[in-house]
Amino acid sequence: MGAVIKLRNLRKYYKDVKAVDGISFETPERSIHAILGPNGAGKTTTLKCILGIIRPTDGDVEIFGVKNDPQRVLNRVSFVPEEKDLYTFFNLMDMIEYTKKMTENFDPVKALELADEFQLPRKDKIITFSHGMKTQLYLALAFAQNVELMVLDEPTWGLDPILRNKVLKMMRDLSMDRTILYSSHILSEVEKVSDKVTIMVKGKVVFDGYLEEAKSNFKCVIVPAEVNIPEELAVSISMSGKFKMVVVKNEDALDEIERLAGGRMRIEDMNLEDIFTTVVGGKIDVEV
Amino acid sequence: MWKCEFKKMKMRVVVVIIIMSVLLTLVMAFKDWAVQEFSAVSQQVPEEKLPKFFRKFLSSKMEVLAQKLKEDDFYLWSQWFGKNFGQFVPLIALILAFPLFSREYERRTIYYLITRVKRVKIYILKSMTGFLALCFILILFSILPLFIALAMDWKIQAWKFIGYTLQALIGGTAFYSIFLLFSVLFKDQVKPILMGIVVIIGTAFLSISDKLRLLNIYSYIMSHNVFQDGKMDPIRTCLYVGFSIFLFLLSWLLFERREL
Q1: A151: which residues sit within 8 A by CB, 6+ positions away?
Q2: Which structural domains are found in chain A, ordered by start?
Q3: Chain B residues with CB inside 8 Å of A137's CB?
Q4: What is the ipTM of this complex?
Q5: What would the DSSP string read from start to end of A107-136?
Q6: What gap in Å lies between CA A168 and CA A166, rounded to an integer?
Q7: What is the CA radius of gyration of chain B?
Q8: Which of A112, A187, A202, B253 is the most exposed place for a label (fewest CB within 10 A)?
């Protein structure tokens, strides 16, 4: 699988604030790639740099092989921003009509079908829409663009669980022939749909890899408290009563801990939330 | 695309047209009354008793002025181009220009546009839509009084209206380009309005000094030279055209590099 997006040492500084600090990752073709991170991690800034909404301080952004010129590939990309603001004096039909005129490769029939599926009112002005309804309309407009890449910033924020699942299913279906890069801080949904995950903390990438790979590599090992575990073997070590919880990221470390503990250990699988908590809380750079 | 952009400014254009139509109707319909009142005032109040600053604004003695006002040509120029319409041109430019970009920033709809259409196209679309609306309004309210005057059988020099219209257009465009720059620069709608008002008031004050005459776009729009000599002011025309082009280009460069 080739990479649709390639970031190399991307930096975005605002005076002394390092919003994005030298990150690199790739988004594989026809996959769902999630950028995860706590508030202020630099997720939105990264997406804005990719789309040329803001200029990087340094580094390269390559989309479809075009380096540092996102304007050239605008017609191959659809975007849903963090703030789902549309023209409030339009109604749904006006908005679809307007989008048809403003957007290349836009399918108004599909947009209307999606809006109907979301049960959005056709004649009410957008000013009367709730945040969730605006999000649904924005998604309908973005999903109805026949593009190769979709960049979605918090696409399910403000949606109820049923709608959220519906949107995630749509994203899954669309990823059959499109690439989706999206940001979220809802771990459960990322775990449900994503192929690849990049975790950002304070402008840096602390984890970048495939979800399945991460799940099989990261293991939580529980050993008696008295077993001495060298720090370099573990991603994180925490105490829990008479036991130590040791997070490791490879088989070699696992073998070494088994030797040190003399077989007195239990291995547990980790879900994305555990991995996220470990790499974010542990402040250790991890690459799979 | 253009139609949609016009739709966004439809309300503002309609409001401006209504206000200007009301003003034009009042100016033309109340000519006799206005002349009569001014004559009465000029007879009752000796000019010497008027405050100094007020006398400075009167180019002729009051009785002469009252006499001249009876002439259709002078009345129409002084009361429409020199007063009502002339004073409204910068305001019309401000009303049309200030929200073009700043509203999109403030309401965050700029993200919708900027990820669909190239920046250069957005800039041309927005700046030209406002400019065309401005031209339409200025041409309409420069030419309309001519037709009404002709219909009312007023004695006027119709050819001078070409000069009035062109100077209103060029002066209006100069103001528009300043306000367009403010709209590109500021991320909310309040600052471009405030800055625009400062510019309008500041420009009006420039008329006090002869040395700053070139910077006073107001006096140019009011077309005194066209009425008096029947000619446009070539130096100021070139200056304002150049100034407007410079600001259009500067605004584009700023928008192209704008971080959103």
Answers
A1: A47, A50, A51, A77, A78, A79, A80, A181, A182
A2: 3-212 (3.40.50.300), 214-287 (3.30.70)
A3: none
A4: 0.85
A5: -HHHHHHHHHHTT--SSSBGGG--HHHHHH
A6: 5
A7: 20
A8: B253
Selected residues 92-131 of chain B with any CB under 8 Å from a CB in chain A: 107-109, 111-119
Asked if A51 and A64 count as a contact pair (C-beta separation under 8 A), the reply is no
CB burial class (10 A; 0-12, 13-18, 19+) of residue B121? middle
Q: Is the pTM of this model over 0.90?
A: no
**Which residues face A32 on adjacent strands?**
A180
Structure token digits, residue B251: 């605004």
Q: In 3-state terms, what secondary structure has residue B158? A: coil
Query: By the 8 A CB rule, do B225 and B90 touch?
Result: no
* Nearest one of A80, A46, A97, A66 to A4, comparing CA atoms: A66
Q: Cα A128 vs. chain centroid, distance in angstroms?
A: 30
Per DSSP, A16 falls in state T
Report yes or no: B197 at the A interface, CB cutoff 8 Å.
Answer: no
Nearest CA in chain B to A138: B112
Q: If you compute the radius of gyration of chain A from its CA atoms, what whole number of angstroms results?
A: 21
Of B8, B109, B257, the CB nearest to A85: B109
Asked if B166 has any chain A CB less than 8 Å from its own CB, the reply is no
In B, minimum Cα distance to A44 occurs at: B260
Pairing mode of beta strands A236-240, A149-153:
unpaired
Tell which residue, A67, A44, A65, A46, has the closest CA to residue A57: A46
How far apart, in Å, are the Cα atoms of B146 and each of B24, B41, B79, B87? 11, 28, 13, 18
Domain boundaries, chain B: 2-28+71-256
Residue B157's CB: how many other CB atoms inside 10 A?
13
How far apart, in Å, are the Cα atoms of B145 and each of A109, B141, B218? 49, 7, 20
Which burial class, exposed, middle or buried, applies to A146 when counting CB atoms under 10 A from its CB (0-12, 13-18, 19+)? middle
The answer to whether A48 contacts B114, with C-beta atoms less than 8 Å apart, is no
Alpha helix stretches (DSSP H) within B30-51: 31-44
Q: Give CA–CA dist A184/A191, Å, rounded.
A: 11
Q: B9-42: buried (b, 16+ CB within 10 Å) or exposed (e) per residue?
A: beebbeebeeebeebbeebbeebeeebeebbeeb
DSSP conformation letters of A146-205: --SEEEEESTTTT--HHHHHHHHHHHHHHTTTSEEEEEES-HHHHHHH-SEEEEEETTEE
B224 vs A: CB within 8 A: no
Q: Is A9 helix (H, G, I), strand (E, B) or coil?
A: strand
